[in-house]
């Protein structure tokens, strides 16, 4: 069981998340932070648009539906916090038995959900609270959602330079964006309706490219003879690689024509990739790693760094990685989907 203070915080966030969120945003996510992240998102959308147009596996009929004027143009971007905060005034929190407050809030949430029946879909609603350190793509809404909780260092810092932000949060946002156009996103149209918009030819070509990613990750041994399940993790591995490439394109476009100073001994390109790696720092016990490999669609964090980067020619160039090194796949082995 977690310490009492952690359980208290989780209960508050889970039941009064948007009230807590207002306090969190006021303290940690000022308007200038939201403005900067929205500018970064514009660059990412432009980069993704370019990659969709030049995709080698997506045929022209499919591209026509995936390009900016349809699904990408319809993509809703939610950053930081809702435009309209949830109103909790119909309930009350009192000093007294904890269970009575929980019952009050459970009844409030039940009433709120029941009122939705028969009404239009509320496309302004959030599935995560503002302090949450997480993000998601919702295919039913064709939206990417990033709470203020993840828009903090090491992912994002409005006072940091572009290399750190595009390599950190940029790659994560790009990751979520690609889910709208992959083997899952193909099943939903621009409005989130269950409609497959891929041609059979594009589907077969995507499977061939995806198989190469499956093979790569299945080759990684995590514990002794326990290997990553490349099939289980393929969707997230593809999104990691795509998000990284999209973010790098956006970054290069952002700094084009500007001075490229060396900072702390590293070039802007090196700092971009270092920021990506730093954002995935993690330490897990062997038991947790084993459970993750057996059950989780995400590869272990260190392989979410090393796996994609070994496919990125720009990474090899930035650090002068020698040929035939584990972190530099040959041109024949290298996989690019997005």
Describe this protein's structure.
The protein has 338 residues and is mostly helical. It has one domain: Collagenase (Catalytic Domain), CATH 3.40.390. 51% of the residues lie in helices and 5% in strands. The chain has 13 helices and five strands. It has a three-stranded mixed beta sheet, covered by helices on one side. Strands 4-5 form a two-stranded antiparallel sheet. Helix 7 packs across helix 9. The longest helix has 23 residues, at 31-53. The protein is globular.
Write the layout of secondary structure elements.
Elements: H1 4-15, H2 17-28, H3 31-53, H4 60-66, H5 68-74, E1 76-80, H6 98-114, E2 136-138, E3 143-147, H7 162-178, H8 200-218, E4 221-223, E5 226-227, H9 234-255, H10 268-278, H11 286-295, H12 301-309, H13 313-318
Parallel strand pairs: 1-3
Antiparallel strand pairs: 2-3, 4-5
Helix pairs in contact: 1-2, 3-7, 3-9, 7-9, 7-10, 8-9, 9-12
């Amino acid at each position: 069981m977690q310490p009492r203070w952690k359980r208290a915080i989780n209960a508050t966030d889970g039941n009064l998340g948007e009230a807590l969120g207002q306090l969190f945003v006021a303290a940690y996510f000022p308007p200038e932070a939201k403005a900067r992240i929205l500018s970064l998102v514009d660059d990412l959308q432009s980069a993704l648009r370019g990659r969709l147009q030049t995709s080698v596996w997506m045929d022209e009929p499919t591209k026509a539906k995936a390009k900016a004027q349809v699904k990408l143009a319809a993509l809703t971007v939610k950053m930081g916090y809702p435009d309209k905060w949830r109103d909790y005034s119909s309930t009350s929190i009192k000093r007294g038995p904890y269970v009575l407050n929980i019952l009050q809030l459970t009844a409030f949430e039940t009433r709120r959900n029941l009122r939705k029946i028969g009404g239009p879909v509320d496309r302004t609603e959030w599935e995560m609270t503002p302090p949450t350190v997480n993000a998601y793509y919702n295919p039913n809404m064709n939206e990417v959602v990033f709470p203020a909780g993840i828009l903090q260092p090491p992912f994002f810092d409005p006072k940091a330079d572009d290399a750190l932000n595009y390599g950190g949060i940029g790659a994560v946002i790009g990751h979520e964006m690609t889910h709208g156009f992959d083997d899952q996103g193909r099943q939903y149209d621009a409005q989130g309706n269950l409609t497959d918009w891929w041609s059979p030819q594009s589907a077969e070509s995507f499977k061939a490219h995806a198989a190469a990613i499956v093979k790569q990750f299945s080759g990684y041994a995590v514990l002794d003879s326990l290997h990553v399940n490349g099939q289980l993790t393929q969707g997230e591995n593809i999104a990691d690689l795509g998000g990284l490439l999209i973010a790098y394109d956006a970054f290069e476009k952002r700094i084009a024509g500007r001075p490229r100073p060396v900072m702390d001994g590293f070039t802007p390109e090196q700092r971009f990739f270092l920021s990506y790696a730093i954002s995935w720092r993690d330490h897990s016990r062997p038991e947790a790693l084993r459970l993750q490999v057996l059950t989780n669609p995400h590869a272990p964090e260190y392989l979410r760094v090393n796996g994609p980067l070994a496919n990125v020619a720009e990474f090899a160039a930035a650090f002068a990685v020698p040929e035939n090194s584990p972190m530099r796949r040959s041109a024949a082995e290298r996989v690019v989907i997005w």
